Amino acid sequence: MTTKTIAITGATGQFGAIALNLLKAKNANVIALVRSPEKISGVEARKFDYSKTEGQVEALQGVDTLILVSSNEIGSAKKAGVKHIIYTSLLGATNDNTVQCLASEHVETEAALKVSGITYTILRNTWYTENYTDLIPASIANNAFYGSAQNARIASALRAELAEAAVNVALGEGHDNQTYELSGSTSYTLADLAAEISKQTGKNIPYVDIPTTDYANELVKMGLPKEIAAFSAECEIYVANGALFSEDKTLEKLLGRPTAGLDVAVKQAL
Length: 270
Fold this sequence. Notes:
Mean pLDDT: 94
Largest sheet: 7 strands, parallel
Radius of gyration: 19 Å
Strand order of the largest sheet: 3-2-1-4-5-6-8
Structural class: alpha/beta
Order of helices and strands: EHEEHEHEHEHHEHEHEHHHH
Distance between the termini: 45 Å
Number of helices: 12
Oligomer: single chain
Number of strands: 9
């Protein structure tokens, strides 16, 4: 039986690097597709630039399964003979109640995949828990966890859990032409997160809900560029409306265990 060749785009990014290391640990036949191949060691690395179609077909030669991390190189993959694309999309991408500021590109890519003739698996990933736990140092400095999601419930998952699910799909069978909604096993509010931070640090750090524009300003103070801060704050409007609440247990099934709770996520962040 021949071993399939799995390639992953953005293999030096946070999600891609985790997936790459998991594939290496499982002795998979893996190729890293990156802008700077010299940054990769231990596996074959090929130069791959999202912004230029030139060279993409060549870089994808001999690839059976492509883990496509939120990008749109479907035409190149088809020309290169890629058999299976695993695409990381957005939780509830085609629902009315989704994070609309992010959804349109994912919806277009999903549609393009479905008419491409290539076998696909769409992983509609929830928010990374790190999107919030990365704010812990600032919350400790401010003696408050600022947010703009009101009391909405959030079923996020750790980046590593979502990367592991993608790897398990790549190495497994029975995922052809499936769309999976991937969310955390449990949900929490930002007040719950602030309470867990308080518990683990021994400091009183309440959750303080503020208007979107104020939240954007807080994110700038935390070091985010103005445009990214404004965009992140806009996304919280949809989070507040429940866009990240889901009771779907598909991620749990793909992992073979429940996802980590807030206690684990906060401990990791600290």
